[in-house]
Design goal:
By secondary structure, the chain is an all-alpha fold. The chain has helices at 2-6, 17-42, 50-61, 70-89, 92-99, 102-114, 120-137, 147-151, 163-177, 184-191, 200-227, 234-257, 259-265, 273-295, 298-310, 313-326, 347-363, 369-377. Helix 4 (70-89) crosses helix 12 (234-257), helix 5 runs antiparallel to helix 7 and helix 7 runs parallel beside helix 15 (298-310). The longest helix is centred in the middle third of the chain and has 28 residues, at 200-227. Residues 142-155 and 179-185 have low confidence and may be disordered.
């Protein structure tokens, strides 16, 4: 995403973040609609006409409580827009480090909105997770990661010391979210497209707001998924979420913010394979996040995201090797010791001697009582 905002211009133009946010929601809507129709078709007879399936889908999406998804949909749209503002004003490493604050905001909203209780041990683990992921994301060297960042001017963080500075910072942030005008200031911004100027203060504020919105929207979406009485599948909920996200993304972002530029230069100006790849990753990531929230919770989702940042192929190989080393091997059946050792008493010889003694007693072969008495008298 960061490279898409600082890469060389495509036909002299850079794509608009508002159009990317809208296309992200459209892609998620198409994916979720396809899976939802497939699920509905599995529960209906094979000869069911397409009109019946579409009617069933419509009734499932627009239920009585579907309006609840409009709130997190609007929040997610604002979060995505702020992400583009942040990556346009911060380098990739700084953005990743500061964006991990969403781990703490998610935990805070989970406690306040869902009534969960986190022990001191869990809070410490969350702090360590945030710190660990931030350390991993720190750049190893002082040189820029790519040529585009080398050419771009380095941004500096400005801490406000007065109310005027704070008001100016707020104005800079709002200027990134409002439409451009035909004034000289707007023309000056257009001249900086080839070498975009990064404002670290605006990027940092955008990240903080995006982290807060991410925690709030994620916990609210989890609450709707798990507390609703309506029997709606996860894919239906995602269809509702993506559908309601289209309205703020289109009317506020595309029409009000960048309507003039889009009408003049086209909706897909500045698009190339890099932009489409970023949009695809954003859409697939949103679907995966919904799956994780449905089957676990938002805190577990943040842990999984952090693991994916730290571990990739190497981490998976290490974990698999650890499993192979620690797992017990195939056990051999115990040996039958009695079959290899000779018993103390030979049962066959004992029985032969017993039978021989019994025969001798019957035939009088042994010493008689009279001979024993004679020996005593002598």
């Amino acid at each position: 995403m960061h490279y898409s905002r600082i890469m060389p211009l495509v036909a002299g133009q850079r794509f608009l973040a508002s159009t990317a946010v809208l296309m992200n929601e459209v892609a998620k809507l198409v994916i979720c609609l396809t899976v939802s129709l497939y699920d509905i078709s599995r529960n209906l007879p094979p000869s069911t006409p397409a009109s019946t399936m579409l009617k069933t889908l419509y009734n499932s999406v627009f239920t009585n409580d579907s309006w609840k998804l409009a709130i997190p949909a609007s929040l997610y749209t604002l979060q995505n827009t702020l992400q583009y503002v942040a990556v346009s004003n911060l380098d990739a490493a700084t953005f990743q480090v500061t964006y991990q604050l969403k781990i703490l905001t998610t935990a805070l909203f989970s406690v306040t909105m869902l009534g969960r209780s986190l022990t001191a041990r869990k809070w410490i683990s969350l702090l360590l997770l945030t710190l660990g992921v931030a350390i991993v994301q720190l750049p190893s060297g002082s040189a820029p990661a790519d040529a585009a960042q080398a050419d771009a001017p380095q941004s500096k963080l400005h801490i406000p010391t007065s109310m005027d500075d704070l008001v100016k910072m707020g104005g800079d942030l709002v200027s990134h979210l409002t439409r451009r005008s035909a004034t000289y200031e707007g023309i000056q911004e257009d001249q900086g497209l080839a070498h975009p100027q990064m404002n670290a203060t605006v990027g940092f504020i955008a990240v903080l707001i995006a982290c807060t919105i991410s925690g709030l929207a994620g916990v609210y979406f989890e609450k709707v998924l798990k507390d609703s009485n309506a029997k709606a599948s996860l894919w239906i909920r995602n269809v509702q979420l993506s559908f309601y996200s289209l309205f703020p993304a289109f009317f506020i972002g595309v029409v009000l913010k960048d309507g003039e530029q889009i009408a003049e230069k086209g909706f897909f100006m500045g698009y190339n394979y890099v932009v489409w790849t970023a949009i695809a990753f954003q859409a697939l990531g949103g679907v995966v996040v919904a799956l994780c929230v449905n089957y676990a919770d938002n805190i577990a989702k943040n842990f999984a995201t952090s693991i994916s940042i730290i571990f990739l192929v190497g981490g998976l190989l290490v974990m698999f090797a650890t499993y192979l080393y620690s797992s017990p091997g195939r056990r051999q059946p115990p040996a039958n010791i009695a079959s290899y050792e000779k018993t103390t008493i030979d049962d066959s010889n004992f029985e032969d001697k017993a039978e021989s003694g019994a025969r001798n007693m019957d035939t009088g072969a042994g010493p008689s009582s009279e001979s024993r008495r004679a020996k005593r008298e002598d």
